[in-house]
Amino acid sequence: MKILICGLPGSGKTTLAKSLSKTLPSPLAIINADEVRTQYNDWDFSEDGRIRQAQRMRELADTFEYAGKTVIADFVCPTKKTREEFNADYIIWMNTIKEGRYEDTNAMFEELEDYDWMVEEFSNNHDNILEDIKMNTFNISYGYIQPIYSNRELHIRQSMSMSYIPILKPTKIDVGFSYLAFIRISAADHQEHLQMAKLSKTRHKSPEHIANGITKYRDTLIPKYVHEDLASGKCKKLILDYSLEGFYDVDWDYISTIFGVEKSKIVWLTGVYNPTHMNSQSDVTVLFNNLWEQFVYDNSMNPIYINEEESFSSGYQRQIQDINDLKIRPYHGLNYNRRPHLHRVYLLSKLKTQKLLDQTAFSWGGWGLDTQQEPQTDERIDHEYNMAVEGKFLRGEEDWKSIRDIIKMDKVEFPNGDLTSNKAHSINFDHIKDCYFQIISETMSLNDYHDPFLSEKSYKPFVSGMPFIMWGQMGTVNALKKQGYKTFDHWIIHDYDNMQSPADRFHALVQEIERLYAIPPEQWSIMLKEMLPDIEHNYQQIKSNCDNWGVNEEVTWKSANPQTLLSAF
Questions:
Q1: 3-class secondary-structure state, position 505
Q2: In whole angstroms, what is the distance from residue 285 CA to residue 283 CA?
Q3: CATH no., domain 2-138
Q4: What is the domain partition of the chain in residue ranges?
Q5: pLDDT digits over 86-98, tens only?
Q6: pTM for the full model?
Q7: Does residue 433 contact residue 329 with C-beta atoms inside 8 Å?
Q8: Is 410 left (phi over 0), alpha (psi -120 to 50) or beta?
Q9: What is the CB neighbour count within 10 angstroms for residue 378?
């Protein structure tokens, strides 16, 4: 959700923004226009400069909103055009003064005709504003929302995770209005009914569980008029955006029942690349929506970088300069392991057995980070080792010692790195500058599905200027190639990517890591410079892929393939 606080300079915008930030629900982001202008060193206050600033503010706000944060933006936003460019969900007009300290701004400022709240006399009590924001935009009953009509357009707010996408197909006799209902869902927010175990076709769902799901989704989240419009055809489809996740085993009858929508009217967006098998299972339309590629790109374009001492752009340019300078780096591989998934335990164990861990810059959240993991007792360690042996991932006394040491190992964090919070947004060039390539431990690895799930981890090397090797599902590297990325095949052997057996894939991967680690640092620096054209190609490719995501004249929804969605209508 984006909240715009606008008004003349000196009207109290920043003060109100700070006050509201203490009371609105977390997570929250505050964007101050002066700070953004400082980041860009752009002090053009002409009409064009104001519009450019509004566009920057919108792009930054959209990035935070995409990451699940409520955004408060405080800036003058003096004209109707700049306010339309920012496209706020909720507008507060600070109408506390008639003139500000800048004559050009006074002359340019257009009084608002459409706003949600006007402050005419500033005070420190903002409970009334806060209550109105909550009533209009946050609803604890899972996002029940109503359309709001204004003078400028039909504006339907996104409440929690539900919104509407208009479709206009004018004819000589009719405006041809219809729409798509859109709900973004995630396992984290809907664990009771929509986490992986609950979605499975083999999972028993009690009548009470299904009844609770119907109450929560069919009868509360989805308004009655949407059900009526789905029946009449005015609402074309219900889009369930589950692309944060990559779950394959989905009980479509269960989904249809708890949402109260027939399967032919449901579009399920997934993070699974090319989900042809899922799409063939029922009348539900299943499409790949590459949310994570866009997420990584948006974060790389964010002027407020995670490391406040360095912008993303300067970090990337430092990486390119280090490559050109043939810098010698202290580590071969960079490997992130915040959550202790078993496939990551296996990889770290094998690297330790092969005496490669000391040459690796890595993080490890610790066995206790995941509350689902049982205590690291000897019995538990033996159990995990026996499972690894049965799966043909580990074997022998040295591997047993290694998995024991990894499971018992305390957290391993980079300086100033807090592994208790999700690091999906984090791209840190202080780590990157010390390593030649990244060992990606994707979210999923220990299955033989042909269609891989692509998380943010697969895309981070492209914006950080690194080659990579992939511990993921079969076909993950190939999926990236199909999206236009270079995978450094001249230097890195990705034969493991074609192996269906997870164990075979794992051992081929480890063998290739051993080969890459045997290359001396001096030779690696030369290789990295040889890779530079491919590195810079990937940086431009992610920009091209994400800039071309469609906002077309009919559907203002970003999809990896909007035309596929539109073909249903």
A1: helix
A2: 6
A3: 3.40.50.300
A4: 2-138, 156-289, 301-545
A5: 988 889 999 999 9
A6: 0.70
A7: yes
A8: beta
A9: 9
